[in-house]
């Protein structure tokens, strides 16, 4: 179905080719997972399948890519649209219409599909992706995860033979991600659809892959093979594989179920091991960094937040979790003054955020939004960092040093729009951190980040917390919450339904428990790092 014949792609001004000597074949009806570090060429490879590379992105493509017998060099993306459906990292870039139902129908309208067929396929897709209640909603009012499902649905309705997905679950809560992956499984197994998917959250998807395509790094040849064999040598691995390597299991498990079957001896070794130290609670006598008292936010007829009471102390890291649309982003917006509470109060220090002047607020609280481009306006990375240093009153080079620490290799002359989703997030985070605000808010901070970049981000955030900064992050990344959070606050329909130490809250919830906790059962173990330390 998909054939790469010695394919290399090089962009102007780049030292190494983005993709080098790719030579493999993907048969019909298989789910192939692309893995590799950020910048290894995953998005370029996906673009070569849909024809976006090089017809839309530019660059030089050598070799030959064929999809269902069509050569992508001689067939532009519009001539492949009936065969290949594509969802990129940014769902907003795909939308053409204003409402969910219209967006699902648009692709079929462009292809001249009969109205009765269009109607049936729209209904099928609404049911498949759990979008029925959103059919009449304006897309602008949807949460990030809801938009992701609509974007996936819009390419499913024309019934393409190949689906190309770039991080399809990155903005979804665990339950919604499982729904999407179940749909993809049905498409592969029942309809013979070929799925090519890049995803950094391997813990969610690797067990569903028929094959794994590893892109080791810039300029290195891709390798295609069975998931277990590729994962053993991959530089990026999910926690369950890392746990298997630590325990010496062979073959390495790819799912929690496989790992649990092997975990008996490891549980016995950990029974007498020292427990991981619980984070020290905030000093109640220290003035809080921020406080919400009975805060509520109404958006039209919708109560986005209801009666939220929350106190944030210095050095505390709090993870906001919950379904898409639960109110996590709204709570962050209230803390940074982007929305005005309809009831209750919100204070950051002694300031009321929605009344404070932006220049004063930037030194109190900083927000890295779901869409990093909202913070990026300059033409180069260097100019963006220089402007951030000026606005924050920081020493020249402060922002640029943060970018280099988090994600080495980004050139000063690079335009922010040419960065990957993960790289843009790192740049936006550096822009906000230049002011070193006491309160740092992050909305889905690991979206688009590989495991190495996430580890560097964790190091930076831990250092900030140790230095007294308060961090609040809205995330669907249960592994991030397990690694970083002191407290977890779970929201549902705008209300707080759980608030407590991370080890207690996430383990009590099947949806939000990390892989290590699921494998080892009840107990204090949340991360591979904790298990490694205990075994020492």
From TrEMBL:
* UniProt-recorded Gene Ontology molecular function terms: ATP binding; ATP hydrolysis activity; ATPase-coupled transmembrane transporter activity
What SUPFAM superfamilies has UniProt attached to this entry? P-loop containing nucleoside triphosphate hydrolases
* Disordered, as annotated region: 266-289
Task: Tell me which Gene3D superfamilies the record gives.
Answer: P-loop containing nucleotide triphosphate hydrolases
| Function as written in the Swiss-Prot or TrEMBL entry | Probably part of an ABC transporter complex. Responsible for energy coupling to the transport system.
* Keywords of the record: ATP-binding, Cell membrane, Membrane, Nucleotide-binding, Repeat, Translocase, Transport
Under InterPro entries, the record lists: AAA+_ATPase, ABC_transporter-like_ATP-bd, ABC_transporter-like_CS, ABC_transpr_CbiO/EcfA_su, ECF_ABC_transporter_ATP-bd, P-loop_NTPase
Q: Ranges for the ABC transporter domain?
A: 2-243, 290-518
Compartmental location = Cell membrane
Which family does the UniProt entry place this protein in? Answer: Belongs to the ABC transporter superfamily.
The protein's name in its UniProt record? Cobalt ABC transporter ATP-binding protein
Q: Which organism is it from?
A: Streptomyces uncialis
Composition bias (Pro residues) maps to: 276-287
Protein topology in the membrane: Peripheral membrane protein
User: What would be one Gene Ontology cellular-component term for the protein?
Assistant: ATP-binding cassette (ABC) transporter complex
Q: Which SMART domains match?
A: AAA
């Amino acid at each position: 179905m998909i054939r790469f014949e010695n394919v290399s792609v090089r962009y102007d001004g780049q030292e190494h080719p983005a993709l080098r000597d790719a030579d493999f074949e993907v048969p019909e009806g298989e789910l192939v997972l692309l893995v590799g570090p950020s910048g290894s060429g995953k998005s370029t490879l996906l673009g070569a399948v849909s024809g976006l590379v090089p017809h839309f992105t530019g660059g030089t493509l050598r070799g030959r890519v064929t999809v269902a017998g069509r050569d992508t060099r001689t067939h532009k993306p519009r001539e492949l649209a009936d065969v290949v459906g594509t969802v990129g990292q940014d769902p907003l870039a795909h939308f053409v219409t204003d409402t969910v139902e219209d967006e699902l129908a648009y692709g079929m309208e462009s292809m001249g599909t009969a109205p009765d067929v269009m109607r049936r396929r729209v209904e099928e897709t609404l049911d498949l992706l759990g979008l029925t209640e959103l059919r009449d909603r304006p897309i602008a009012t949807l949460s990030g995860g809801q938009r992701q499902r609509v974007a996936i649905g819009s390419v499913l309705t024309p019934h393409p033979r190949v689906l190309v997905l770039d991080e399809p679950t990155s903005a979804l809560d665990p339950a919604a991600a499982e729904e999407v992956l179940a749909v993809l499984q049905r498409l592969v197994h029942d309809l013979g659809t070929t799925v090519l998917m890049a995803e950094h959250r391997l813990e969610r998807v690797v067990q569903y892959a028929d094959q794994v395509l590893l892109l080791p790094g810039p300029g290195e040849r891709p390798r295609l093979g069975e998931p277990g064999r590729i994962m053993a040598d991959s530089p990026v691995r999910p926690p369950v594989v890392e746990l298997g390597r630590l325990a010496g299991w062979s073959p390495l498990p790819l799912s929690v179920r496989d790992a649990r079957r092997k975990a008996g001896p490891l549980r016995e070794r950990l029974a007498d091991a020292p427990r991981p130290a619980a984070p020290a609670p905030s000093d109640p006598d220290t003035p809080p960094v921020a406080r919400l008292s009975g805060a509520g936010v109404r958006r039209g007829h919708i109560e986005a937040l209801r009666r939220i009471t929350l106190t944030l102390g210095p050095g505390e890291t709090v993870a906001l979790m919950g379904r898409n649309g639960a109110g996590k982003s709204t709570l962050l917006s209230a803390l940074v003054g982007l929305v005005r509470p309809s009831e209750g109060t919100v204070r950051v220090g002694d300031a009321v955020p929605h009344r404070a002047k932006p220049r004063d607020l930037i030194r109190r609280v900083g927000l890295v939004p779901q869409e990093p481009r909202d913070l990026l306006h300059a033409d180069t990375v260097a100019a963006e960092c220089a402007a951030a240093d000026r606005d924050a009153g920081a020493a020249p080079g402060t922002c640029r040093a943060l970018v280099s620490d988090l994600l080495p290799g980004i050139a000063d002359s690079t335009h922010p729009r040419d960065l990957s989703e993960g790289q843009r997030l790192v740049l936006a985070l550096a822009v906000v951190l230049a002011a070193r605000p006491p309160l740092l808010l992050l909305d889905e901070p690991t979206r688009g980040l590989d495991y190495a970049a996430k580890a560097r981000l964790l190091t930076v955030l831990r250092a900030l917390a140790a230095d007294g900064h308060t961090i609040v992050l809205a995330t669907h990344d249960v592994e991030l919450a397990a690694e970083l959070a002191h407290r977890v606050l779970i929201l549902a329909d705008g209300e707080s339904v759980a608030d407590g130490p991370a080890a207690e809250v996430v383990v009590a919830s099947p949806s939000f428990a990390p892989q290590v906790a699921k494998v080892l059962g009840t107990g204090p173990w949340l991360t591979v790092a904790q298990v490694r330390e205990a075994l020492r």
